[in-house]
Amino acid sequence: MIVVTGAAGFIASCLVSRLNQANFNDIVVVDNFSVSKKERNLQGKKIKEFVDRDNFFDWLDEHYEEVEFIFHLGARTDTTEFDKDIFDLLNLNYSKKVWNACCEYQIPLVYASSAATYGAGTLGYDDNEDIIPLLKPLNPYGESKNDFDIWALEQTAKPFFWAGLKFFNVYGPNEYHKGKMASVILHAYNQVHEQGRLALFRSHNPEFKDGEQMRDFIYVKDVVDVCLFLMHHRKNSGIYNLGSGEARTFMSLALNTFEAMGVPANIDFIDTPLTIRDTYQYFTEANMSKLRSIGYDKPFYTLEEGVKDYVQNYLIPHKYY
Question: Which fold has domain 2-171+217-244+285-300?
Fold first, then answer.
């Protein structure tokens, strides 16, 4: 059996689908299934068992001999939430329990970290584990992810294989439920569909023109392919960046969304909200050499390819992956 936590969420539900495509059908999905707005993400998928996240460790104590691999992708991901106790509970302490269980039962583990750990990027975006204790995330979400990365690296007891993945700006199908935390592409599509226009945040940094803020956007299909690679690879444990390796502007993202929709571009700019203006990132770009160095050689989707596939094959027909 393969366990996927956070399974009804965006990335994890796409991973379940990708595992099914690879003929892995004994999937145990772990989540808070009382959140009904995520339920469609798992419809039609081949799943062996549903386990509530609060019951997971009791379940694992009984079934650990049958578990081949754990993907721990469950987390509170709201970057505008400032209650540190929530992040300590769900992101830090729950992850420690998953890690310790994988050590006790010798189960290989892939877990979700985040590019939010890099903060303003003053130390760059290299997945060099020596700099992880020096990073300064800009919000409690990023702090919780970095706190766990630091804790994991300090442990003398480790799963025989483990990998932490620093997800950059992931976009793609199955994020319909994420509200304000969904990708800019989904928000752009909805705005254009409803209003025929798109508003982007104005730049408040003189080094960047309006719309020229840059992010490393990575398509979710690439993310789940990397997860499968690591499940089969099972060596070279450590923390890895997972982005496309190429920063692109929000303007490029917007223009590609209009093109994929077959709608003339109509873009204006609004002020970045004061609540996030001081912690707004103007540039992110993953150094992907570490993952490439262990043998992952599949090309990543370009922004043009990813946006076109997402918009035309999922958003317009409102399909799930």
Answer: Rossmann fold (3.40.50)
